[in-house]
Write a structure and sequence with these properties.
Blueprint (H helix, E strand, L loop, with lengths): L1 E3 L11 E6 L2 E6 L10 E3 L7 H7 L6 E5 L2 E6 L3 E3 L2 E3 L2 E3 L5 E4 L2 E4 L4 H28 L4 H16 L5 H13 L8 E3 L12 E2 L7 E3 L8 H12 L11 H9 L2
Helix pairs in contact: 3-5
């Protein structure tokens, strides 16, 4: 935040300062902030619930707008205070914490909720290999899948290269992912997302990789390319976005 005195003097002008928040001018109480301070900024046209606007002391400055089917003063608008334009308003983090309707509310991004969302996403991200692992641990023989995997591995073993970079990932794939099993290579139907079909899945911090059952119908070369591509996700340092350039080199062998 950058703060300066108003350019136009007016009654009570000595109690106000012009502040710039991300390049936008707004009036603040003198001494409320100093240049470089962090603040919570409420830009024009956002809507505030009644208890929030009252707690912030801005209810009388809001414009009427539609909120949950009712019209009442809830919209932040640009205005003039003592003749000086002010676009929205700013508050300190302490000023945006209050007790309303019996609960404590914060007008800022709730880091606790963010942590919960990240946790849920990670659980969902890791679920596929664990489901596959449980399935292979409890189910019977998977001889056909092993034969298909053997064809993919045989194809990789036939590739020849003097490039230590490519030789490293090929040797790693053959050594690590040559066996069907709970925590090695699992074939289960994968869910399509955003219009794209997922044919391989490898979460680096869970054991094994998962291939879609569609891959069982691929040629040895096609299956081998999918296998080495997924193996590269846990082969340092070929995590995304370094995998695509690596795969282009392997496909030209």
């Amino acid at each position: 935040m950058n703060a300066s005195k108003p350019s136009r003097r007016a009654p009570d002008a000595d109690k106000l300062e012009i502040a710039k928040v991300a390049g936008t001018q707004t009036l603040i109480v003198k001494g409320q902030f100093k240049a470089g301070d962090l603040c919570v900024y409420f830009p024009p046209d956002i809507l505030l619930p009644g208890d929030v606007s009252e707690a912030l002391g801005v209810a009388k400055y809001l414009k009427t707008a539609l909120w949950e089917g009712s019209r009442f003063p809830c919209r932040v608008a640009a205005c003039r205070l003592r003749g000086t334009p002010s676009y929205g308003f700013a508050r300190t983090s302490r000023q945006t914490t209050w007790t309303g309707r019996g609960q404590k509310t914060r007008v800022k991004f709730n880091l606790t909720q963010l942590a919960k969302l990240i946790l849920v996403a990670l659980i969902g991200f890791m679920a596929t290999p664990f489901i596959g692992g449980a399935y292979y641990s409890l189910s019977g023989n998977h001889a056909y899948e092993q034969r298909c995997l053997d064809h993919y591995v045989d194809y990789l073993q036939e590739l020849r290269t003097n490039d230590p970079e490519l030789k490293g990932i090929l040797d790693y794939t053959i050594r690590r992912y040559s066996r069907i099993g709970a925590w090695d290579v699992a074939f289960i139907p994968l869910i399509a997302s955003s219009g794209f079909k997922t044919i391989g899945y490898n979460c680096p911090w869970t054991p094994g990789l998962t291939l879609d059952t569609e891959v069982l119908g691929y040629s040895p070369r096609e299956g081998a390319m999918v296998l080495v591509h997924e193996a590269a996700h846990d082969y340092y340092p070929y995590f995304h976005p370094f995998i695509d350039p690596l795969m282009k080199k392997i496909e030209h062998l």
